Predict the 3D structure of the following.
Amino acid sequence: MTTTLALHAILGALAGVALGLLFFRGLAAGVRLTLEGEATRAVPLHLLRLGAAGAGFTAAVLLGGAAALLGMLAGFQAAKAFAVRRAP
């Protein structure tokens, strides 16, 4: 039982890092588009980004339960820290 929970948490963390990197890369692209005056192209990107994050977290809960969700949140936060540190 404990091994299964640990596996769900680890897989959730890996998925969270991947989702977080895509999320924050999309955020950077949306901000760049907005600053360039392309707000009409940025809005769908923001909606896609938020929808994908919501779907990813929902899938984590449905497939792995609380352990996967906590792992995914931790991975997402780690990706945020990496993206903020890397930002120019």
In short: DSSP finds two helices and no strands in the chain.
